[in-house]
Design goal:
The chain has a single domain, classed as Outer membrane protein transport protein (OMPP1/FadL/TodX) (Porin). The chain is mainly beta. The strands form three sheets. Strands 1-3-4-6-7-9-10-13-14-17-18-20-21-24 form a 14-stranded antiparallel beta barrel. Strands 2-23-22-19 form a four-stranded mixed β-sheet, with no helix packed on it. About 45% of the residues are buried. The chain has two helices and 24 strands. Keywords: Cell outer membrane, Membrane, Signal, Transmembrane, Transmembrane beta strand. InterPro entries: OMPP1/FadL/TodX (IPR005017). Belongs to the OmpP1/FadL family.
């Protein structure tokens, strides 16, 4: 039972869509380490978000009030590759290549003030993991993670910034317990923050500057588990905390421009996020199994950034797996209801004359959604 159901539940847990801050694209699951024997898999996804808002602030004139931003997110693809090797009866090794974060922002020219603004973040992570089995069904997990990241932004004000491509390292540690007879497993893992120091080229006021700034891809904790509850039926779930309040993109010239009275970051988040997932998987016969799941990330309230106007999400998903001999093919779909939010008026528009550094609402983003499709092909050998 466990082997067939695991493939469906894993895709349900990992299906990518709009998540925390609008830039997270991988949950860093260690489920690959628990595949039987030697195993390799390839994953691909297609995500189609639709995020739009309405301008509420009369700048530069009252004619802008009510302007529709249009869909400011672009469709994107995600890919990952995983390889697991059974070294011996006690030791397993896994190598995972995925895209932990990313952004594809493009405001169309609709009369909305931010029209023409764009932002892109690209990242590729390579994670090497070891799992060592202890007595009483316990095991310890450890590994190292390298992330290569770059980004660029263009704002309607004429400000441009492009970073260097930087590769830096973090680590993974964890512990797990399992009882294969009932397909039960619990794994708790910690991913450290990865600190980047970027060289940047900034264009502001018609002048070009070579600058530097630092950004942390935040630390996270993931608790994931599953257990059989009846013949051919499995319940699974996860809880994930991410330290998004530590994420900050503050290029030097942008942050220290005379018009940036409060030295606001280009991108930052006030609060951390916790995402909950719960689902049920069932094997229908020797070849077919499926899973349904729901996930929820509560909104944090307050203002969202104009380059990431989302706040929490609730998602519903389905996955089905076909197994034949050593081959497993899984397809999944996820529908995401993105949390409503408001963005804040930049302090420059009011000359920094904002009570308690609150410049009021710039735009409202409501009733936005995303749909994600995923495909996984796995082979045991």
């Amino acid at each position: 039972m466990g082997r067939v159901l695991l493939s469906a539940s894993a895709v349900a847990l990992c299906a990518s869509a709009v998540n925390a801050g609008g830039i997270e694209r991988s949950a860093q699951s260690v489920a690959l380490l628990f595949e039987e024997g030697n195993y390799i898999e390839f994953n691909m996804g297609r995500v189609k978000p639709e995020v739009s808002g309405t301008q509420m602030f009369p700048y530069p004139s009252a004619a802008f009030v009510g302007a529709d931003s249009g869909d400011m997110t672009e469709n994107y693809n995600t890919y990952s590759l995983g390889f697991k090797l059974k070294v011996n009866e006690k030791l397993d090794f896994a190598l995972i290549v995925d895209e932990p974060i990313g952004a594809d922002v493009s405001y169309p020219m609709t009369g909305y003030l931010y029209g023409g603004s764009t932002a892109d973040v690209n990242a590729l992570a390579t994670t090497a993991l070891l799992r060592y089995k202890l007595p009483n069904n316990f095991s310890v997990i450890g590994g190292v993670r390298a992330i290569k990241t770059s980004g660029r932004v263009h704002l309607f004000t004429g400000y441009d910034m492009q970073t260097s491509s930087e590769t830096d390292f973090g680590y993974v540690v964890g512990v797990a317990w399992e009882k294969p007879e009932i397909a039960a497993r619990v794994a708790l893992t910690y991913n450290s923050a990865v600190s980047h120091k970027f060289d940047a080229t900034e264009v502001a006021g018609g002048f070009t500057f070579d600058t530097e700034f630092e950004t942390d891809i935040p630390q996270s904790i993931l608790l994931e588990g599953q257990t059989g509850i009846a013949k051919d039926t499995l319940v699974f779930g996860s809880v994930r905390w991410v330290d998004w309040s530590a994420f900050d993109i503050s290029p030097y010239m942008y942050t220290n421009a005379p018009s940036n009275h409060f030295k606001d970051a280009l991108v930052s988040y006030e609060d951390d996020t916790i995402t909950y997932t719960l689902g049920v998987g069932r094997r229908f016969n020797q070849n077919w199994s499926g899973a349904v799941f729901v996930s929820h990330e509560a909104g944090t309230g307050g203002y969202a950034g104009n380059l990431g106007p989302t706040d929490g999400a609730t998602a519903l998903g389905l996955a089905a797996t076909y197994t034949r001999d050593n081959l497993k093919i899984t397809g999944g779909v996820r529908y995401v209801m993105i949390g409503d939010t408001k963005t804040e008026v930049p302090s420059a528009f009011l000359g920094g004359q904002c009570p308690n550094q609150d410049c009021g609402t710039f735009a409202e983003f409501e009733d936005n959604t995303a749909i994600a499709f995923g495909l996984r092909v796995g082979y045991s050998f």
